[in-house]
Every structure is written in structure tokens, then in C-alpha cells.
Specification:
Oxidized Rhodanese, domain 1; alpha/beta; Metallo-beta-lactamase, Chain A; 3 domains
Length: 473
């Protein structure tokens, strides 16, 4: 028996490859499925089943394409109603894979169809669970995404409590937990950075598995402090339920090379979004006016989903040479399939064509410190509310990147203002959005809070929740 976790850091997502006696099961595959097929072929094995733990909200699964290419059936848990052919398994149903067995444990709560898959080894002993978004390491799945009709988030949280205590917690402590996500995912609140653990350790450290915890206590703790889900989540759920275009079609369309003149003409004719995915340092030095920066080297896909409101938005890419296909694939993982091409030769081709370009004013933390000591500066901290609350520059205003458009009325139109984040990635995203909105009087603090600390700028950890927008603290 072979079990491999295929972890994608950008999405903080775990897919799984299970093999026994030449038969393979894939659990929660990513949109691009060639690596799974290639791996099975290399091992001389055949993909027999594709298991889905639930209808994913934060990424588009590769289940439909993988099934079309391999003939392997897609398996969902009870109550799932996809628009395509699939096996809707019963609770407790078992699927034989070589010498091992995968057992269905229906665990509603995150969503009603949420299912955990229990792997039994060659001796029929419980070996591991693939818990999807039911159980994370250090946390459990948020219960607010599948509210429908009269079913509330409290109802879902109650179902989740029962699922954990009747289906998962009774399992042996040495059972391995393979979750659907790790730290950085918006599907939970408190996930650990580790991606594999034992159930016994989770019973010790996971607040949601606390012994003698009542259902009412569980519901209160699980629903407390939930941030609004990204707007692209329901759109991804729809694609996972109804199907989507083959990724090869998306790649072919998205990797069309355009000259600078062609690129400009397309951008202007259909109001395409120009998305620059280079490193933030390169974007600062020069970029196409009104383009938006979201770099591939950061949390690319989640930020695309959080900040670009419509998955059907036409997109044109500025990339480093050779990164065009990577960008298109990573956009497709979160359902953004309408990439129309890229600038051949990258940003340098734009400059060589004599086209207008823009820059971002940026200063070091040391220069920023000297100005703070002599001037009354407008400072905007675009980190999350929780980061700001734990430590921030005195008198800096919190303007979390994911809600940056809500703060436009507070940003000065003419006077200089300064933006910073934790390390320099998010502040440049914010700066690009603000410049596209006509705010050209901004100055980025290079290196963010890390550089600010190193420069010895005084910080405070006190914040009054009433000063934050939307009552968030």
C-alpha cells in the first residue's frame, strides 16, 4: 500500500494518491490532472476511483476531467447531487482497492454531503482518514458556507459536532489524519502549519475535539470570529457540481502570445483586466498603467479569488518569460478560466514599444522611521485585522487588503499616504488597486512590518475594536 499527500501551498490544499496492487484512488484532485495520470502510469497502475470529500468552495477540483480521461468513476458521499454521472455512496459503503478498503463515513456539518474516507490496510485495520474539510489539524471546517433554506450555520455546526463525535473521535488514536487543507486556507480559522497528524494528538490539541465539550459550547466556538467567505466560493461550488471546460482548452486560450499593440488593443476593446504576476519589486519599478499586481510568488490563487469579483472577468497576463502557462493553470484552480493571452516578451516588450508605464513610490523602513519622527504621516496597514490588533504602528489605520475598497473614503486624495503589510507583498497589491482607482499619492514601505520592526519603529499592541470597520477586532 502506498499513500502520498500531494500538497499545494498556494491553496493550502491536500490531494491524495492511494495505491494497492496496481489500483489507484485519487482523493480531491486539483484541476490539472496530468500529474496523477503520469504517476499512475509510472507505477504501472490504473486509476480505479476518484473520491470527492465534498463540493469544494475554494478551488475547482479535477474530478470531472480525471474521470473523462481515465474512465474512473467519481464517488461522492450521501446527499450529493452533481449534474454529471457519479456514484453517490451510502454511509458505511466500502470500496475495494487492491488489498485495501476505503470506507465511506458520512460526516455532514461543513456541508451536508461532506464525507470522510477511512482507509483500512491489508489486515483490515483502520489506518488513516481523509477528512476533507470536516477535520483539520487544529481546527474543523467552517459551518457557514452551505447555509440553505432554513438550515442555518448553527444547524450545520450541530451536525458537525455529531459527525466528529460519532464517526471520527471513536476511531483509534493511531489513525493518521490527512486533512483537505492546512494553514492559510479560508476554510477554517485555526489550522496548524503541519499537514499530517495522528487522531490521538488531535484529540489533545484541537479545541473542537475537547473532551466533555457540549454541543452548545462547540457551536459557539466554531461559529465565533468567522470572517466573510471570499466571493468566489459559491462560483467554485457551482463549477464542482455542474462541471467545467477541460483545462487543456483553458491553457490553449490563455497562453496566446500578443504583441504590445495587440495586447493594448484587446485590453481596451473588451475592458480586460491586466493582471501582473511578476515579483512585487519588478512591479514597483515599472508596470502598465491601471494593471493589478498579484504575484505568483505569494498567495496568488486565494488573493485572485478574494479581489477579482467575477470569475468570468476577461484577463490579460504580464508574466516573467516562461511563466505564462503556470499563471493560467493557477487561475483556473479557482475558476478564473477567461484568460485571453499574455504580453509576448513581458513588460520589457511594453517598454521597448515606447508605451506609457507607471511606477510606485517606495521607501525603506529606515527612511520611513525618520519621517515618522518629524512628520504627522497618514499610514495605512493593509494586514488582517487580527495582525493589526496584535501589533501595529501607533496611529496607523487598519485597511485590510481583502476589504480595501471599503476604505477608499478614508484615504486622502492629495496628501501623501503610506501603505505597508507584513513583508511587502500585500501592500503592493493594495497599491496597485489604489492606483487603478486614481490614488497616485501613495508610498509603499518596502519590507513591511518585518523591516519596520528591524528599523526599531515603536509599535503598540492595543486596539479598540470600535475603531475597526464592520465591528471586526
Amino acid at each position: 500500500m502506498k499513500v502520498e499527500q500531494i500538497y499545494t501551498g498556494c491553496l493550502a490544499q491536500g490531494a491524495y494518491y492511494i495505491e494497492s496492487k496496481g489500483e489507484v484512488a485519487i482523493i480531491d484532485p486539483l484541476r490539472e490532472v496530468d500529474p496523477y495520470i503520469a504517476k499512475a502510469e509510472k507505477e504501472g497502475a490504473k486509476i480505479k476511483y476518484i473520491f470527492e470529500t465534498h463540493f469544494h468552495a475554494d478551488f475547482v477540483s479535477g474530478h470531472v476531467t480525471l474521470s473523462q480521461l481515465t474512465g474512473a468513476p467519481i464517488v461522492f458521499g450521501p446527499t450529493a447531487h452533481p449534474a454529471f454521472e457519479a456514484i453517490i455512496a451510502e454511509d458505511g459503503q466500502e470500496f475495494k482497492l487492491g488489498d485495501v478498503v476505503i470506507k465511506v463515513l458520512h460526516t455532514p456539518g461543513h456541508t451536508m454531503e461532506s464525507t470522510t474516507y477511512l482507509l483500512k490496510d491489508e489486515s483490515a485495520k483502520d489506518y488513516a482518514i481523509f477528512s476533507g474539510d470536516t477535520l483539520f489539524l487544529g481546527d474543523v471546517g467552517r459551518p457557514d458556507l452551505a447555509q440553505k433554506g432554513e438550515v442555518t450555520q448553527d444547524d450545520l455546526a450541530g451536525y458537525l459536532y455529531d459527525s466528529l463525535r460519532t464517526k471520527i473521535m471513536p476511531l483509534a488514536n493511531n489513525v493518521i489524519v490527512y486533512p483537505g487543507h492546512g494553514a492559510g486556507s479560508a476554510c477554517g480559522k485555526n489550522m496548524m502549519k503541519e499537514t499530517v497528524d495522528t487522531l490521538g494528538n488531535q484529540k489533545k490539541v484541537n479545541y473542537a475535539l475537547r473532551e466533555n465539550m457540549t454541543k452548545s459550547e462547540f457551536i459557539k466556538e466554531v461559529t465565533d470570529g468567522l470572517a466573510p467567505p471570499p466571493q468566489y466560493f459559491p462560483l467554485n461550488v457551482k463549477m464542482n457540481k455542474e462541471g467545467y471546460d477541460n483545462i487543456d482548452t483553458i491553457i490553449e486560450k490563455g497562453t496566446k502570445a500578443l504583441t504590445a499593440d495587440e495586447f493594448e488593443a484587446v485590453a481596451n476593446s473588451i475592458e480586460a483586466l491586466v493582471l501582473d504576476v511578476r515579483h512585487q519589486d519588478d512591479f514597483i519599478k515599472g508596470h502598465i498603467p491601471r494593471s493589478i499586481f498579484i504575484g505568483l510568488q505569494g498567495g496568488f490563487a486565494p488573493w485572485v479569488g478574494a479581489l477579482i469579483k467575477d470569475v468570468k472577468q476577461p484577463i490579460l497576463l504580464i508574466t516573467d518569460p516562461g511563466m505564462e502557462e503556470e499563471a493560467v493553470i493557477r487561475l483556473s484552480r479557482v475558476g478564473f478560466d477567461n484568460t485571453l493571452g499574455y504580453l509576448k516578451g513581458g513588460f520589457e516588450a511594453w517598454k521597448s514599444a515606447g508605451k506609457e508605464y507607471d511606477t510606485i513610490s517606495s521607501i525603506s523602513a529606515e527612511t520611513f522611521k525618520s519621517r515618522l519622527e518629524t512628520e504627522n504621516l497618514n499610514v495605512f496597514d493593509v494586514r488582517k485585522d487580527s495582525e493589526y490588533a496584535s501589533e501595529h504602528i501607533e496611529n496607523a489605520k487598519n485597511a485590510s487588503l481583502e476589504f480595501i475598497n471599503d476604505y477608499l473614503s478614508e484615504i486622502p486624495k492629495e496628501a501623501p499616504f503610506y501603505v505597508h503589510c507584513a513583508g511587502g507583498y500585500r501592500s503592493v497589491i493594495a497599491a496597485s488597486i489604489l492606483k487603478s482607482r486614481g490614488f497616485h499619492n501613495l508610498i509603499d514601505v518596502a519590507g513591511g512590518m518585518k523591516a519596520i520592526r528591524e528599523a526599531g519603529i515603536p509599535l503598540t499592541d492595543f486596539v479598540c475594536p470600535s475603531t475597526l470597520k464592520n465591528g471586526k477586532s
